């Protein structure tokens, strides 16, 4: 049976890297005999907003909910539409309405890519950040008092539910279970945040009882960010609340070189709703329209999508092809952000050809 994929390219370089993501997926589908059926949607971008006064049609949920996955480019064109409108009107709606409570980002230093951390080689950095994506610090509960006066007070609450915390922890422990090192690191700040973070720590200890073969440690977020930079080789699976996960899931990929190659997944693990796969980078208006954006973030996100759909071998082959093309280091193929003189297309084609062989 065909796997139905909804494709939303979005804005800026999203529309340029998406064709390369699809090219790579086509190559993998052919080689591994996977039936993928793509349906493109022309909403969820700023031009749609300028025409309709909203980012998506009112029935977007109905239109998308039965797909097996969403393959997504990037959204935003700040000169035309403020970021909070474009983001809240599309991507954040998907994350919330489709209960994509896991945000997953691999942080892996690839061959031929220079890490900003001096002396780091591929193999030194290879871990996942698992971010809680639906609650925690990003609640809208709170308010203002005495606004505009000297006595002004603002409050915003953190919300942690047992279900919400346990489900992200379970996902992270399960992931650690599949990794050779079987190691899980929890981000906390229970020395300063005295109610929610000790609760998080408690749930980690409770969950750990069900995973006796996983070695578990925890770091306060301040020293943890320092250790990402000083000792990235310590980490295997790192799990954090919405805010801490947000910070770590930008810092982790940053340690692996260019933002152009980092992939991500927003996952509803039960499969009740479609999960969404997108590059970490945004729409990059500064380079949009030039055909020079690095397509690897999009292609790698496609690989994550195949793994999610149950095709681990095909997914691994896509990542291996990315590694091979990077290792070859052909200047005329690679994009400018990784030291080449090529284009989105030359790099996309080289990877698709490598997947195909
Ligand atoms: P967002 O707010 O959506 O995260 P942003 O505008 O803050 O987006 P990006 O769009 O990711 O950030 O761009 C940040 C910088 O990285 C820009 O200078 C951009 O040109 C560069 N960049 C982003 N993606 C790529 C890519 N795929 N290839 C090359 N350079 C990229
Ligand atoms: Mg931005």
From TrEMBL:
It catalyses: (R)-malate + NAD(+) = pyruvate + CO2 + NADH. Residues 4-351 form the Isopropylmalate dehydrogenase-like domain. PROSITE patterns: IDH_IMDH (PS00470). Keywords: Manganese, Metal-binding, NAD, Oxidoreductase. GO terms for molecular function: D-malate dehydrogenase (decarboxylating) (NAD+) activity; magnesium ion binding; NAD binding. Its cofactor is Mg(2+); Mn(2+). It holds the Pfam family Iso_dh. Its EC number is 1.1.1.83. SUPFAM superfamilies: Isocitrate/Isopropylmalate dehydrogenase-like. Coiled coil: none annotated. Belongs to the isocitrate and isopropylmalate dehydrogenases family. This is D-malate dehydrogenase (decarboxylating). It comes from Vreelandella populi.
């Amino acid at each position: 049976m065909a796997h139905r994929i909804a494709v939303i390219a979005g804005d800026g370089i999203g529309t340029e890297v998406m064709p390369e993501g699809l090219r790579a997926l086509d190559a993998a589908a052919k080689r591994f005999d996977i039936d993928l059926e793509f349906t493109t949607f022309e909403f969820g971008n700023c031009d749609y907003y300028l025409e309709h006064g909203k980012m998506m049609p009112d029935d977007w949920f109905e239109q998308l909910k039965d797909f097996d996955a969403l393959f997504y480019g990037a959204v935003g064109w700040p000169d035309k539409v403020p970021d909070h409108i474009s983001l809240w009107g599309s991507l954040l709606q998907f994350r919330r309405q489709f209960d994509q409570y896991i945000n997953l980002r691999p942080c892996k230093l690839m061959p031929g890519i220079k890490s900003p951390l001096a002396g780091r080689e591929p193999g030194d950095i290879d871990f996942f950040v698992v971010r809680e994506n639906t609650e925690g610090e990003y609640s809208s509960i709170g308010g203002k008092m005495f606004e505009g006066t000297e006595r002004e007070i603002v409050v915003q609450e953190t919300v942690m539910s047992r279900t919400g915390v346990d489900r992200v922890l379970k996902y992270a422990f399960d992931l650690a279970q599949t990794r050779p090192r079987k190691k899980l690191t929890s981000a906390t700040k229970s020395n300063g945040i005295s109610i929610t973070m000790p609760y998080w720590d408690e749930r980690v200890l409770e969950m750990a009882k069900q995973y006796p073969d996983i070695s578990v440690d925890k770091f306060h977020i301040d020293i943890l960010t320092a250790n990402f930079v000083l000792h990235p080789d310590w980490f295997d699976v790192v799990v954090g609340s919405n805010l801490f996960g947000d910070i770590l899931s930008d810092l982790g990929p940053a340690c692996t070189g260019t933002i152009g190659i980092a992939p991500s997944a927003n996952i509803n693990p039960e499969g009740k709703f479609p999960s969404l796969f997108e590059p970490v980078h945004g729409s990059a208006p500064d380079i949009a329209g030039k055909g020079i954006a690095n397509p690897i973030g999009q292609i790698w996100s496609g690989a994550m999508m195949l793994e999610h759909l149950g095709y681990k071998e095909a997914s691994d082959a896509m990542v291996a092809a990315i590694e091979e093309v990077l290792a070859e280091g052909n200047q005329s193929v690679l994009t400018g952000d990784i030291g080449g003189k090529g284009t989105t297309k030359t790099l996309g084609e080289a990877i698709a050809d490598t997947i195909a062989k």
